[in-house]
Amino acid sequence: MLRRAVYDDDHEMFRDAVRGFFNRELEPNYDQWEKDGVVPRSFWLKAGEQGLLCPQIPEEYSGPGGDYRYLSVVVEELHMAGATGPGFAVHSDICSAYILNQGSEEQKQKWLPKMVSGEAIFAIAMTEPGTGSDLQGVSTTARLDGDEWVINGSKTFISNGQNADVVIVVAKTDPSLGAKGISLILVESDRDGYRCGRNLEKMGLHAQDTSEIFFDDVRVPKSNLLGEEGRGFVQLMTELPQERLAIAVGCMGLAQRAYDLTVEYTKERMAFGKPIIELQNTRFKLASLKTELAAGWALTDQCIEHHCRGELDATDAAMAKLWTSEMLGRMADECVQLFGGYGYMMEYPISRVFLDARIQRIFGGTSEIMRELISRTL
């Protein structure tokens, strides 16, 4: 992959450090974490010590003070290492943005330093058993009782659910107002009535803990409200573009890994007395995949640049998420085909890419929802 103009020398130095850390601390252990279904908290703390968590947080909150591109570097390198767990993007790209951009000064001072160090792992709870991409349809409620919010309901498919110390909960504070009655509330996982269900068994993303969460009269202080009451839906719409960009970045990292693994394999695999990369079909397939990669990186880098200038809108983010996730699906399928029967064996890392790729077209808003959002601007 060519040097990309979106990054400068400082970002590339950071990339070298991130890649070295993953080589030492992640790759030797990742197979075991896939079996365990969770990444240990000790790894989060080590990542925090190395400045890999929330690198965009300002120094006034004990952060490194970098720009968004440092976040992208971590996500890219994590996925190019073949690791879709731990849920760093949920913690650093998504949750920390809510605290930094929507939180009170007290909330920022309390939580951001711990997010940077890895002492507090965050999750965000949007999806419910009866609702997917329709965030207006959430049924979890938060009722004000004196100086406390009383929360009832349940959430599912919550990334970082097993490890989470704090969850940003999407709840109805006034069910009669529809989208205008949605608020965001911080809920610590050690509160009475908070219960984390089983670690869900998934097709892919095995090392990323994903959970059901239940709230039975969970009480939190009134000050745990994130932003203004009734502004939750607006807050979600404001922060979703960065979430979708993070997914696009991850898709490109996985696609690059699939391509690199396949090129290496086709140079070694012999058929008809020669490496299969010398067969015209193989070369033509790889040429097409290389071209799709170049197009995907160009689109993603353009969105990264726009986001750094504060110009990334919901439509651009939706297009990036849609195109890169669909391209990754095509890439993973073609690469497994080029591996032949070995591509179907779990001992070959291309099979993990294939499994981890499928969810990218679903979470963060399905491809169908992305098309709906884009079509509204036609």
The name of the CATH topology of the largest domain is: Butyryl-CoA Dehydrogenase, subunit A, domain 3
Supply the helix-strand structural class.
Answer: alpha+beta
Q: So, the CATH homologous superfamily of the largest domain?
A: Butyryl-CoA Dehydrogenase, subunit A, domain 3
Q: What CATH architecture of the largest domain would you give? A: Up-down Bundle
Mean pLDDT: 96
Record field, number of beta strands = 10
Residues in helices, as a percent range: 40-55%
Domain count: 3
Main pleated sheet? 4 strands, mixed
What sequence of helices (H) and strands (E) makes up the elements? Answer: HHHHHHEEEEEEEEHEEHHHH
Q: Output the number of helix runs.
A: 11
CATH class of the largest domain: Mainly Alpha
